Amino acid sequence: MKIVIIGNSGSGKSTLAKALVSRYALPYLDVDTLAWNNTVPPSRKPVSDSLIEIMSFTTANSDNWVIEGCYSDLVSALFCEISSSRSDTELTLVFMDLSAKDCIENAKNRPWEPHKYKSKAAQDENLAMLIEWIDNYDKRTDSLSRQSHDTVFNEYAGNKVRITERLPVERIIDLVTKSKT
Questions:
Q1: Which of 40, 84, 103, 106 is deepest in the core (most CB within 10 A)?
Q2: C-alpha dihedral over 125, 129, 134, 137, to 10 degrees?
Q3: Domains of the chain
Q4: Rounded-to-10 torsion of CA 56, 59, 62, 68
């Protein structure tokens, strides 16, 4: 089972990924952990550098994995690499396409993310910026925008699922696993 999850911040990508990991014992990669340089302010790594790390992860875990992130440029590059060596039927793309309102509500209620922030207080200090970021999802035109996620989703010819409303994570897992049949 190979699953790639994309969507806006706060859409439930990490929640779904962690539930899949729990249910199926899948290796898990949060692309946030490798897409950024450790600088102040943070800056994006070149796509080629991040792709090397992603491909290392998929190679080390060739049979099963889940990858999540909001980076359509990295997902597109990953799909190009995978399609040259594997069948598209092995991979399912999940687009967590929730409204900005739902994503903002999720962001306000998210637990501390220790892999991103030194403390819950530091995470909370960033909340206003994150809410603005989420709210601009439809206005952006970069690789982190709805437009770019729509393009990746629409161009992907393999198994895919678009989630457009808040659903219990177990229901989403059922939809994702049934898309493979």
A1: 103
A2: -160
A3: 2-178 (3.40.50.300)
A4: 30
